[in-house]
Amino acid sequence: MSGTSVRLRAGDGVETVVLAAYLMGSADFEVVGSEPRQPMTPFGILDSLPESALATAREWEQHIIEITTGVAPDGARRATYDPLTRTQHERDTAKAAELTDAGRRVGVRTLQRLRANYAEQGLWGLVDQRVLRESTAVGRVDERVVTAVRRELDAQTGASTGTRSRVIRRVSKALEEEHGPDVVPLPGRSTFYALIEALSTGRHSFASAVTRRQAANRPARPFTPTLAARPGEQIQIDSTPLDVMVVLEPGVLSRADLTIAVDVATRTICAAVLRPVGTKAVDAALLLARMLVPEPMRPGWSATLAMSASRLPHDRLMSVDERMARAAAKPVIVADTITIDGGNVFISETFTRACERLGISIQRARKRTPTDKAIVEATFGSINTLWCQHLPGYTGANTSRRGERVDEQAVWTIPELQELLDEWVIAGWQPRPHDSLRDPDFPRRALSPNDAYAAMVAAAGYLPVMLTGLDYLELLPVTWRAINDYGIRLDYRTYDAKALEPHRRQPSGNAAKRDLWEVHYDPYDLSQVFVRTPNGWVTAEWTHKPMVSAPFADFTWREARRLLAQRGVDDTDETNIARALDDLLTRSENGPVRPNERAGRRAAARGRVAAATHRPPTSDAEPVEPTSIESVEATVIPFGIFDAATEAEKWR
């Protein structure tokens, strides 16, 4: 050996020089002829032992050291244990006699066994193994009883919460049926209770059934956590009922569905949309479009909420995207991958087609595994804590947390609540430090979503995506229909337009769809549909639209048909449905509500609110050409940054 180098000589005389660290790190390296090194004592396990057992082991250690080395731990030397004049057997015999005279009957064989255990395991080898068996969770209970208790606790996961006495009864019956009466010894009542308590730790077997199922459904943590290094790399999206009662219209209360998209890298709430309960696929599709459009400043908002007054790199972003000039302080994030669950809204053709058109990959979470999109789930809890609980009409997370007469406290409508939510996201969420966002150079400093975006966009860059009015039509649900002499039939409704004349009874040329025509419709406004033709989009209006005094949604249409069927009237006749629909909308607006009409009024109110709040996001693209859509009333709302002055001129 020379420093850190080792010269090796083989049997044939060949010499090799290697580093000592490389030599000792080799798998087949071994020091031949040396005594085995005593392993390190497991101090962590020793600390978990009872004090009496640990004290006994340390006392034995003093005796073993003395008979092995001839020197007691306190430094005393006695001729009886001198290894130069006494053999090992003589020293063992002398120690056994000494301990026996002191009142502890110990044989020579026992001392030899303890000495061998100490040489192999250190202090751990001197611990009484009976103490270890008694200190385990099951103690000395028969293993068959332990297995039966574990099996019964597993069965409690999906059952209603019971008591420990029910578990004891079922375990006793199961052991009798499996092994016969009085074959398996059962522990006493107190021991049985202690056994169940030890085995049910962390299971919530006798607590909340919801918590128990959630704990059982928790998957094993991944070996490597999934990380996102740039905005939009991973976005999680989900919907949940908002824990706030809202006013659909005077006298009609309900809850709203909240759909949000959260960026994993920056924890930015990219978009948040409120709808009456019953979120549709088109809502999720339009949520994607809202993510790509800057949030406009609204009248009445403080100037401090503008992007130009925030920590976002406003000047640099505006040099790339002019829409940022009058935008609020919320990043515009273009998604690469979106994680969804198995909800019908997100696995629908409408949503998947929208993602495909926008170039977004979809990653579906595993069934009943909310931890696959844990960030958006946690964000819902944060919204409840930071925003919802401060609103009138807050219901709490469940009925056990609900106050008295919550319905009477509801004052906000969905459009008003949407305005509050948009403002809170910009003023309350985006600049607020987030525990999961840390500066690598200063780990103790928590960053806000805006801070994290400003740092990451400088490295990842920003490429805007512009949407046109036609993109809004592409995001709507699609169906395939024939164009007949009378027009297009859709759910017992007839749609027609003069621009359809050249295409009546003609094939579309799409053999995969049996030569049917592509028809897009808005489920919140069924008064018109949009047909794709070789010459562009054509808007076809419902032929019975003059009979209905207000806009209606698909669930309002179904409610009108239900009322007709309840009265024994043909619910497939279009004229009858139109009259019933108009009557339903009129009665829901005026006069008292009879008990049997509450469902209809709620459906009508949901339809009106959904239609009023269902607006496409804005962008800087050109409006749709007037010739491409026939009806002026049905012209798709053009995309553009919200301009307060222009909007005021319209209303003036």
Report on this model:
By secondary structure, the protein is α+β, with helices and mostly antiparallel strands. 37% of the residues lie in helices and 13% in strands. The chain has 21 helices and 13 strands. The chain has helices spanning 20-24, 43-47, 51-69, 88-101, 108-121, 129-135, 143-155, 164-179, 189-199, 209-216, 281-291, 314-320, 349-357, 374-386, 414-429, 449-460, 469-475, 554-566, 574-589, 598-613, 644-651, and strands at 5-9, 15-19, 235-249, 252-263, 269-276, 337-340, 361-364, 478-481, 488-490, 493-496, 517-522, 525-533, 536-542. The strands form three sheets. A six-stranded antiparallel sheet has the order 8-11-12-13-10-9, with no helix packed on it. It starts with a strand and ends with a helix. Residues 591-595 and 618-644 have low confidence and may be disordered.
- Spatial arrangement of strands, main beta sheet: 8-11-12-13-10-9
Total individual domains? 5
N- to C-terminal separation? 96 Å
Overall helicity: 25-40%
CATH class of the largest domain: Alpha Beta
DSSP strand (E) fraction?
A: 5-15%
Which features does this protein show?
13 strands; alpha+beta; 652 residues
In short:
The chain is an alpha+beta fold and 652 residues long. The chain has helices spanning 20-24, 43-47, 51-69, 88-101, 108-121, 129-135, 143-155, 164-179, 189-199, 209-216, 281-291, 314-320, 349-357, 374-386, 414-429, 449-460, 469-475, 554-566, 574-589, 598-613, 644-651, and strands at residues 5-9, 15-19, 235-249, 252-263, 269-276, 337-340, 361-364, 478-481, 488-490, 493-496, 517-522, 525-533, 536-542.
